[in-house]
Amino acid sequence: MLETVQTCMKSSVMGKKMKITCVGGGTIGSSWALIFALKGHEVTIYDVSDDVLINSNDRIRTWLKLLLKKGFIERKQIDQTIGKINSTLSLNDAVMDADHIQESVFENLNLKKKIFDEVSLLVKPSAILASSSSGLSITEIQKVAKRPERCIIIHPINPPHLIPLVEIVPGKKTSPEVVNSVYDFMLRLGKIPIIVRKQVPGFVFNRLAAALWREALNILDEGVATVDDIDKVVYAGMGLRWAIMGPFLTYHLGGGEKGLEYFIHHIHPTFSKCWKSMRTWTVAPRAIAEKAVEGVKQMNLVKEKSYKELVEWRDDKLIELVKLLFDQRVSEDKTS
Ligand SMILES: NC(=O)c1ccc[n+]([C@@H]2O[C@H](COP(=O)([O-])OP(=O)(O)OC[C@H]3O[C@@H](n4cnc5c(N)ncnc54)[C@H](O)[C@@H]3O)[C@@H](O)[C@H]2O)c1
């Protein structure tokens, strides 16, 4: 892990400044704009209305203030970063000079195809067209693009400016050169990229999340534990280890001196009993979903804080964790 972070730091010093366009300035598009601009790239945000663009700008300012408060950036970086971000309602103006397009419009296949079709006709041949899609097929999306080999998914995790992981998903026609270049670019941004080598629904992050989520709902439904207590198991138990290592290393250590092999042969029977007793529905039964929604309404934190306050509370804690674990302070770029 340390090596990865050191690589991030080293490569961030070597990158050249690019022109980057964020198509869609919602939650994810605005966060991408912040990430790019903090590293000194020229950013343009394109969206469909002035109101959305104003909201996007406000959001970015709020995040910058939080980064300043938490010591991630210096005061002067606020104006410098804002100065790197323009916005426009003209798609042509937004993309014609861009080196990299990061599309973050609604998660809708037809809309994304329409955008990739239009944008690919307007951009320069060398531009990379990346989608933030959480699970659509890039092989399908790239079919409509003029240069399918330059299309790819870069899936961030919300909130992208705080969570280092990104999943890079090439389509059937994406060129290896584009995969490598996007991978290096993400390292230079201070992200921790993985490459999803086969197209599967949900990539890696959401597949793992889906497995845990189904079991959390089942445990609730069977009356084994309450919403509050299931959440506690994750944040006060599993999650603490997961913040420093994944399941493979966790269970390697769980096997004692003999490691993962011992774990698989001697401790797996307990897991086998769990797997045998688990329900495997593929659409959340309505009654279970209702229990979950009701349970969340009863949580003290949800009763005490508004949605906005909860997001601030989460980001405040996330930022402390990221500082502790990754030391990704966004200092001034040495190349500028
Ligand atoms: N929110 C998350 O947790 C999350 C995490 C990772 C990836 N994603 C993915 O990122 C993408 C965006 O998600 P979001 O949460 O930011 O959504 P959002 O609703 O906050 O923002 C979407 C934006 O797209 C704009 N838009 C819609 N049609 C457009 C068009 N034709 N041209 C330009 N802009 C248009 C909307 O005006 C809006 O501002 C989705 O593909 C989503 O799956 C979301």
Q: Any overview of this molecule?
A:
Helices cover 55% and strands 11% of the residues. It is α/β, with parallel strands linked by helices. It has two domains: 2-195, NAD(P)-binding Rossmann-like Domain (Rossmann fold, 3-Layer(aba) Sandwich), CATH 3.40.50; 205-304, N-(1-d-carboxylethyl)-l-norvaline Dehydrogenase, domain 2. The two termini are 28 Å apart. The model is unreliable at 1-13 and 329-336 (pLDDT under 50). The chain binds nicotinamide-adenine-dinucleotide (NAD). Residues 23-29, 46-48, 52, 104-107, 111, 132-134, 155-156, 158 line the site of nicotinamide-adenine-dinucleotide.
CATH superfamily (homologous) name of the largest domain: NAD(P)-binding Rossmann-like Domain
> Kindly state the mean pLDDT as a whole number?
92
CATH architecture label name of the largest domain: 3-Layer(aba) Sandwich
Q: Given the structure, what is the number of helices?
A: 15
Helix content: 55-70%
Low-pLDDT stretches are: 1-13, 329-336
Query: Rough shape?
Result: globular
Hetero compounds: nicotinamide-adenine-dinucleotide
Secondary structure: elements and pairs:
Elements: H1 2-14, E1 19-23, H2 27-38, E2 42-46, H3 50-69, H4 76-83, E3 85-88, H5 91-95, E4 100-103, H6 109-122, E5 128-131, H7 138-142, E6 151-156, E7 165-170, H8 176-188, E8 192-195, H9 205-221, H10 227-242, H11 247-254, H12 259-276, H13 286-297, H14 300-304, H15 307-326
Parallel strand pairs: 1-2, 1-4, 2-3, 4-5, 5-6, 7-8
Antiparallel strand pairs: 6-7
Helix pairs in contact: 1-8, 2-3, 9-13, 11-12
The structure holds nicotinamide-adenine-dinucleotide.
